[in-house]
Design brief:
Elements: E1 6-9, H1 19-33, H2 42-48, H3 54-64, H4 76-96, H5 106-115, E2 119-124, H6 128-138, E3 149-152, H7 164-173, E4 180-184, H8 187-195, E5 199-203, E6 218-220, E7 232-235, H9 245-251
Parallel strand pairs: 1-2, 1-4, 2-3, 4-5, 5-6
Antiparallel strand pairs: 6-7
Helix pairs in contact: 1-4, 3-4, 4-6
The structure holds xylulose-1,5-bisphosphate and magnesium ion.
Length: 252
């Protein structure tokens, strides 16, 4: 019989709603600091989220939405990398200021699964220091040790929707996909986790609620709390009203 051993969490959009009020704002701050007149509105950012990875997203913007832009440097890759470093500085400062809370149920579920002895990992396309800043400023510095693998950013060349980041996390944990569950919030995320053969629970957010989650095991509006039931958007929640270890064991 297959038993549940580990949970692998995406970060952006899943642990916290970081994109609209965190990453987007930090990109705009970096553009302003660099003397660029680029401004990513909430609506434009929703379209830019089609591409994962901040450097890749800037490139996608230049190739598709600001084709007349001239960069103040001949070395485009180098310029984008520097711009992205500035963005990361602003993003981590926003997190330090407590700008982005965890999503409903995240802290409770992490506490419960740790009590139950389940293993934890992270698989995300965001820059490693961003993960550290989010965990430290929401759950405390010790939470970095709760996750035995933090697979993040450029650690694999092919970002989501490629399966590589999940494959990497599974390999580091020495576990087969069928003993783990993934948590995601977006189409690129579930394409990645599904291609790594992981059953996936999706908690949608404002940017992703219209995405195609037909590959998900369960689709919810959030993880829920004992006094705040989730809404089931697709799949069988076995009569539960919030995600707990008991429910997770029925999904594997
Ligand atoms: C998150 C991303 C990241 C962040 C920005 O996707 O695509 O690129 O938006 O972070 P996922 P960086 O939730 O699927 O991991 O600028 O550090 O790349
Ligand atoms: Mg995500």
């Amino acid at each position: 019989m297959t038993t549940l051993q580990a949970l692998i969490f995406d970060v952006d959009g899943t642990l916290a709603d970081t994109e609209r009020d965190g990453h987007r704002v930090a990109f705009n701050m970096a553009f302003a600091e660099s003397g660029l007149d680029w401004e990513w509105s909430e609506a434009l950012y929703g379209k830019l989220l089609a591409v994962t990875g901040g450097k890749e997203r800037i490139r996608h913007y230049l190739d598709n939405y600001n084709t007349d832009a001239t960069l103040p440097s001949d070395d485009e890759a180098d310029y984008i990398a520097e711009l992205h470093k500035t963005k990361t500085k602003h993003y981590t400062q926003l997190l330090e200021q407590g700008a982005i809370p965890l999503r409903t149920g995240v802290r409770r579920l992490l506490d419960e699964v740790r009590q139950a002895g389940l293993r934890l990992a992270i698989a995300t396309t965001t820059t490693p220091v961003n993960v550290e800043a989010l965990l430290t400023h929401t759950l405390g510095a010790e939470s970095m040790d709760w996750f035995e693998v933090i697979a993040a950013g450029d650690i694999v060349p092919a970002k989501k929707p490629a399966p590589d980041i999940y494959d990497y996390a599974l390999e580091k944990m020495g576990l087969p996909a069928d003993q783990c569950l993934a948590f995601e919030d977006s189409l690129n995320g579930i394409l990645s986790s599904s291609a790594a053969n992981l059953k996936t629970i999706v908690t949608v957010n404002g940017y992703t609620k219209e995405d195609d989650f037909s590959q998900a095991t369960l689709v919810l509006d959030n993880l829920g709390e004992p006094d705040k039931a989730f809404n089931v958007l697709a799949g069988d929640a076995a009569g539960a009203s919030f995600v707990n270890v008991e429910l997770l064991k029925t999904l594997i």
